[in-house]
Amino acid sequence: MLLGPPGAGKGTQARMLETQLGAPQVASGDLLRNAVREKSALGLEAKGFMDKGALVPDDLVLKLVDARLRERDAQTGFILDGFPRTVSQAETLAKMLDARGEKLDRAIALGVPDEEIIKRISGRRTCRDCGAMYHLIYDPPRNLNLCNSCNGELYQREDDAEDTVRMRLQVYAASTRPLLEYYERLGLLSLVDGIGRTEEVGNRILNALGRGTKPAAAKGTA
Ligand code: AMP
Predict the structure, then answer these.
(1) How many angstroms separate the CA atoms of 166 and 213, rounded?
(2) Nearest alpha carbon, ligand 1 atom 19
């Protein structure tokens, strides 16, 4: 599981881990955005919360995550990204995993300071079709508004506007940061410094999972 504030790099690292570990990324934010795009009843209900930068009510999120985890490719493992976001979601997840005879291997918390997050998110562009992410300065697409891999249109997420990002950071501090202590108490937490090139951060995560080949992971704060 990847934990951390918005813009910490959870999505980017989850996609790297997909390849390295052969397990699918299960990103609650992506599942919600798909539901919004499909204009399902659940998506329409979730949209108002997402646009404000608030958390979507647990029952909606849990319905999507539960359905995703029942899909065939998630039967031998998965990488959770953005879920759980609250202690109550973490408790529900523990029950869901217990019922499947599974357990969480590790909670990786990516630490990145708030000001760096604002810089990262304001330049972030996302592909409407495949969800790939770019940054106008750090990782620009070859063509300004088009995805390198699928040629889909790149857009700025409504909730990536600066005011909304500040709100999301407050929500993170109030509702999600307590999960660090929750997983620490369970002996499952690894703090990983989220500053650096994608591959550097990726190596730190692999080290924390005991899969790395490089020297010990740097410690950070989340
Ligand atoms: P993300 O793509 O993870 O940054 O999520 C985008 C938005 O989706 C968040 O700001 C929330 O509004 C909503 N969201 C994603 N995951 C969750 C979750 N586990 N619980 C509640 N809301 C969520």
Answers:
(1) 37
(2) 83
